[in-house]
Amino acid sequence: MIGVLCITGGTWHIVTEPFIWFKQAVIFSGDALFS
């Protein structure tokens, strides 16, 4: 059970982190363009 949670959590972070980085990059680029 613990192994399943670890694998699921690891996969979740691998899948979700690129979206977070992408959103931060878009926000940063938007701030740079407006400034």
Automatic annotation (TrEMBL):
User: Which GO MF terms are attached to this record?
Assistant: chlorophyll binding
GO annotation, cellular component aspect: photosystem
Q: Which domain of life is it from?
A: Bacteria
A biological process term (GO) from this entry:
photosynthetic electron transport chain
The record's InterPro entries line, in alphabetical order, gives:
PS_II_antenna-like_sf (IPR036001)
Q: What is this protein called?
A: Uncharacterized protein
Q: Which organism is it from?
A: Symploca sp. SIO1C4
